[in-house]
Design brief:
This protein folds into 2 domains: 3-82, Winged helix-like DNA-binding domain superfamily/Winged helix DNA-binding domain (Arc Repressor Mutant, subunit A), CATH 1.10.10.10; 91-318, D-Maltodextrin-Binding Protein, domain 2. Helices cover 43% and strands 23% of the residues. The chain has helices at residues 3-15, 18-25, 29-44, 59-82, 99-104, 106-116, 131-134, 168-174, 194-202, 220-228, 238-241, 272-287, 298-306; strands spanning 48-51, 54-57, 91-97, 120-126, 140-143, 152-167, 188-190, 213-216, 234-237, 247-250, 256-265, 310-314. α1 (3-15) packs across α2, α1 packs across α3 (29-44) and α2 crosses α3.
Length: 318
């Protein structure tokens, strides 16, 4: 495959729009479209479908993006070595992320970054708000939804797959649903507000009455802890839940793909320390999509807070 075509595909995948990808690459939209057509003509088939607000990647594109991300990461490593080693990055970079990503996915990368760049200081905030970028209170945001503000530049990355899970004791006591309609007879665990709870199950193709939620909790990690306590059925990441022998996947035919969006304000994208961290997050997530541990220990947060160059806190970045 032609590397220019792969780079173009990866740029389109990250940006979600042909025009943004072409601008990032410094080529015309016609050239970007031609390269994409050439790549699809090699036999991989259709890679994108038109969707509201941009292009939606097909399952083939999700797999190809991971392979292309690994290729890009390896090429950059070779380029760095040929240039004489590490590029020095210094100063403070403030990153905010949804709880699941902030607590379980990013810390290993940040540990590596602070070892590689001794003069880099990272602050990680746990929030789902994009206003922090617009107000200049954060440099980079990692979210599970696509930003719509025109002043933000974003990259799209596969984030894993969701399914429905219950504790084996709950299944032994109540039984397992045999159809999506059966979920209306079960206790469910959802997000903090009714609308978000319903939306989470609707993403899996299930419509439910609000009364079936035995517990609503803002924290995705808290939802899975409630499931482990036997409170009911909730949506969780397959990569995490399937590693817990006490959790049972119910209605395995139901599932949904998560998408991660890494965003930066357009005024900050070319600041060297911000660009270095932004690119590192994108490469890390492309090579290793979010795969949290089966259970998060509080010690993980304590260790992160103990480092003077890696601060973790809830709420907005100060």
């Amino acid at each position: 495959m032609d590397w220019d075509n792969i780079q173009t595909f990866l740029a389109i995948f990250k940006a979600g729009r042909l025009s943004l990808a072409a601008r990032e690459l410094g080529v015309s939209e016609a050239t970007a479209r031609r390269r994409l057509d050439e790549l699809e003509a090699t036999g991989v088939g259709a890679l994108f479908e038109r969707a509201a607000g941009g292009l939606s990647p097909t399952p083939t594109a999700q797999k190809l993006a991971q392979l292309a991300g690994r290729m890009e990461s390896e090429l950059l490593a070779v380029t760095d070595a040929a240039a004489g080693g590490r590029r020095e990055v210094s100063g403070e970079v403030r990153v905010t992320a949804d709880e699941l990503i902030a607590l379980e996915t990013l810390p290993p990368l940040f540990s590596e970054l602070t070892r590689r760049h001794p003069n880099l200081v990272l602050k990680l905030g746990v929030t789902a708000d994009l206003e922090d970028l617009l107000l200049g209170e954060a440099d980079i945001a990692v979210r599970l939804f696509r930003p719509t503000q025109k002043s933000l530049v974003a990259r799209q990355i596969p984030g894993g797959r969701l399914g429905l899970f219950a504790h084996r004791d709950y299944v032994a006591r109540v039984g397992s649903p045999r159809s999506p309609e059966d979920l209306a007879k079960h206790d469910l665990v959802g997000a903090g507000d009714e609308r978000s709870s319903l939306a989470g199950f609707e993403a899996l193709g299930v419509s439910l009455p609000p009364s079936r939620f035995a517990l609503r909790i803002d924290s995705p990690l808290g939802q899975m802890r409630a499931v482990r306590a036997g409170l009911g059925i909730a949506a969780g990441l397959l990569s995490s839940a399937e590693r817990d022998p006490d959790l049972v996947r119910v209605l395995p035919e139901l599932g949904a793909d998560l998408t991660i969006w890494v965003s930066v304000h357009e005024d900050q994208r070319d600041v060297p320390r911000v660009r270095a961290v932004f690119d590192a997050i994108v490469r890390f997530l492309l090579v290793k999509p979010a795969k949290p541990s089966a259970d998060l220990e509080l010690a993980t947060v304590d260790r992160a807070q103990s480092s003077p160059r890696f601060g973790l806190h809830t709420g907005r970045t100060p």
